[in-house]
Design goal:
single chain; alpha+beta; Rossmann fold; Dna Ligase, domain 1; six-stranded antiparallel β-sheet; four-stranded antiparallel β-sheet; globular
Length: about 350
């Protein structure tokens, strides 16, 4: 049975008929397995729609392969290093191949959690107090992190990884040191954030609009790798059981964070709502997962957008942003306060 599509999705599909879409997946990051699942889901959706699609498991020779294949559109389903850090985007621009998602600079800024935090602060987007500990020169970051710990628990994560890889909570100096060392096994820097108790929310963004807010209820103490990708690892409550006013605030800070990085087309922003209703942005994800346990498809479904239509909308918004030249423009002209 053919998927039911909106008029604008049908128009996008009509433009894609006869064109070739390459789904870039896999790669060599620590998120390779998840990327393969995202890519497979996107490929299945496009084939169901009758689009000519080829899946490419990305290797080091990807730009040579793409220069020979010359697809009309590249759907980036790569998570982590090379996929989300602006590298593949920059290469695609040099090859003049249209692609999905944000441009090189916005991708790099979102991937670098410390750079993101600095831009959030410049834009006056609420974000938890933080410190960056560098493996090569741990002071004064360690001193700042220990000061944060004196006022309560902290959360420690690699500054340039996704999927909660290497992330953990620390309540004591010993636990902090152990968490930082765990980060250093996968990254050159550890980001230490003040822990905020409350609801874990995430807001998908599609084009200029925020999708329904999701509350994440993880099986474990926090939303770790198992909670993200294992069946039953977490519950996604959508729409989130929060007031309409709180949902509006969550969407507002998410959009402000997204725009402060210069992101375009689509993405997802993670937000904590504290016990007083304050919203705190953690990070932005420029290539959200599209697996059976992923959050963005859940949010889209709650907005009446099926998976196949979501794929088409991602392509449509991405191509519009490429035509506008939305590549390099993070902005500080937003301000959201709790």
């Amino acid at each position: 049975m053919a998927p039911v599509l909106s008029a604008d999705a049908r128009a996008t599909l009509k433009k894609l008929k006869g064109q070739r879409v390459a789904v870039l997946k896999g790669g060599w990051s620590r998120e390779r397995t998840v990327s393969l699942r995202t890519g497979a889901a996107v490929e299945t959706a496009l084939r169901k729609l009758g689009v000519r699609v080829s899946g490419i498991d990305v290797r080091r020779d990807i730009f040579t392969r793409l220069s020979q294949a010359r697809p009309d559109v590249a759907f980036i389903a790569l998570h982590g290093t090379f996929g989300e850090d602006g590298c593949v985007q920059a290469g695609l621009e040099l090859l003049k191949i249209p692609y999905t998602g944000s441009g090189p600079t916005a991708s790099a800024l979102a991937m670098d959690k410390a750079a993101s935090k600095r831009l959030f602060e410049a834009a006056r987007v609420p974000t938890p107090a933080w410190a960056l500990i560098e493996k090569a020169a741990p002071e004064p970051g360690r001193t700042r992190a220990e000061k944060l710990l004196r006022s309560g628990p902290v959360f420690v994560k690699p500054y340039d990884q996704g999927s909660a890889i290497g992330a953990s909570r620390a309540d004591t100096p010993r636990a902090l040191a152990k968490a930082v060392e765990a980060c250093f096994r996968v990254s050159s820097c550890a980001l230490v954030e003040r822990f905020i108790a409350g609801k874990e929310l995430t807001i998908g963004i599609l084009g200029p609009l925020a999708l329904p807010v999701i509350e994440i209820v993880p099986e474990h103490a926090f939303y770790d790798y198992h909670s993200k990708y294992a069946k039953g690892g977490s519950r996604h409550l959508v729409p989130a059981p929060i007031s309409a006013a709180a949902a509006r605030r969550a969407k507002s800070v998410a959009l402000a964070a997204y725009r402060s990085l210069g992101c375009t087309a689509y993405g997802r922003v993670d937000v904590l709502m504290d016990r007083r209703g304050g919203m705190w942005v953690l990070e932005a994800n420029t290539i959200p997962g599209m697996t059976s346990t992923s959050l963005l498809p859940d949010a889209a479904r709650a907005a009446g957008i099926g998976f196949e239509e979501l794929v088409l909308k991602i392509i449509a918004h991405s191509l519009k942003s490429r035509l506008r030249g939305d590549r390099l423009a993070p902005t500080t002209q937003v301000s959201v306060r709790n």
